[in-house]
Prior knowledge:
Strand order of the largest sheet: 1-2-3
Radius of gyration: 24 Å
Number of strands: 5
Number of helices: 7
Structural class: mainly alpha
Largest sheet: 3 strands, antiparallel
Shape: elongated
Amino acid sequence: MFTIYLYQYGPAAVGLLVALGVAFVRRRLRVPLPKGARLATAIGVTIALGCLIAFSTWSAFSTWVPSFGEDTFLVLMRAGYLAPLVLSAVALLFLVVPVPTSGPPGSAALAPRTVLTFASRRWLAATAGAVVAIVAIALLAGLGSSPDQAGRYVLYEVRPSSNTSASTTIYGWWFSLPSLIAVAIVVAIALLGMVVISRPALAADAQHDTAIRKARVRNILAVSTGGILLHLGTVLRSLYGASTLRAGFPAGQAGWVELGTSFAAIGPALLVTSFVTGILGIAMWWYVLLSVLPVRTRQPSEPAVT
């Protein structure tokens, strides 16, 4: 039972610790957001985190899972792949809510503002890298998948001989195509939010308004990248399970011959990477939530009047 709890809640707990450490290091760089933006962000990310942890708990205990007949396992796997992306999209819908510009409007900026004006190049690179990674893995796993009896591409087969075979589930087209659509929706909502933030004219205090917009765009990219990384971690963990598949056959005087998958050698790396990406993904969600929580500041004491 302890192993189940560690497997289910360990990444979330470690991710929270990582987020707390980053928030502490960057505490002096924190930009207070307007009240409306803080509230919307807190609600959206809390819903995503709460539902993800609840889904992880629900799926860990078979007695809580409704029966879908012979397809229960496949349906649950697909739900596990889609959950981080769907929840990321839900959180983003709160983050992209327009917030009135604080203070009186300033003069129009001479340089045109684009969707990338307030976006950090490092965050853009992280988001793009996560998307490229999941697309590449989806293509490779999809091309290596085989159909089951119902025609769904969910199997990976090992054939050590003409009359011997073994199969296991893999991130085939039946899993990856809906996931890629969900990734596209997450990216689209993130781009929409960046457009909504960049279009209004800057406030009179342009420097402060620019800092607020950069922080909001960073939160959007962090939530979207975190969701994609959580999905990627689930995929890599599934691929690790597929890499352990073995099939054997008797070979006369040579005895018993056993063969594995073509990617069995990278199985341990897949497992480690799955946990690292999962922890990074949920740490990004935790960090966004921590960044909008109110922080008490000490007010300087006034000198006593004599």
